Amino acid sequence: MFNVQILKHDWPARWQSFIPDLVSAAKTSETICENCMAILKLLSEEVFDFSRGEMTQSKIKELEQSLNSEFQLIHELCLYVLSASQRTELIRATLSTLHAFLSWIPLGYIFESPLVCALLDRWLLYCL
Q1: pLDDT band per the 50, 70, 90 thresholds, residue 120
Q2: Domains in the chain: boundaries
Q3: Between the CA atoms of 4, 99, 36 and 94, what dihedral angle is there, to the nearest 10 degrees?
């Protein structure tokens, strides 16, 4: 299991390219992409849901700002998976990751992007 505690310590100061590196790795195979989605979900949960009392407010703010500033790459990866993948496990992992992001991502990423259409298309494929 990926240790988010190490990542929270090293990112973003010591590993500034973590999100681009992770997104790049995710594009190499669907299995790796599924694992990357799990890492992103864990990171979001740790930073936005479970970090209170474990980190200083300044460290939490730094991680939140870093995730927000890098979210465009994550968003593009999620859209790509939802529009191109046929692998059920990867789609499920992507939806679970998106669910973890809903409490903090800017609403424009939901309503001013193709995300809702991609979700509806995926739902229609599932229903038919």
Answers
A1: confident
A2: 4-127
A3: 170
Contacts 24+ apart (CB under 8 A), 36-39: 36/77, 37/81, 37/90, 37/93, 37/94, 37/96, 37/97, 38/2, 38/93, 38/97, 39/2, 39/4, 39/7
- Tell me the CB-side half-sphere exposure of residue 120, using CA atoms within 13 A: 7
| Interval 22-41: pLDDT, tens | 999 999 999 999 999 999 99
Distance CA 72, CA 99 (A): 16
Q: What is the pTM of this model?
A: 0.87
User: Distance between CA atoms of 35 and 81, rounded to whole angstroms?
Assistant: 13
Give the count of beta carbons closer than 10 Å to the beta carbon of residue 47: 22
Residues 58 and 37: their CA atoms lie apart, in Å, by 26
Tens of pLDDT, residues 50-72: 776 778 888 888 998 999 999 99
Measured distance CA(26)–CA(13) in Å, rounded = 22
Residue 19 pLDDT greater than 60, yes or no: yes
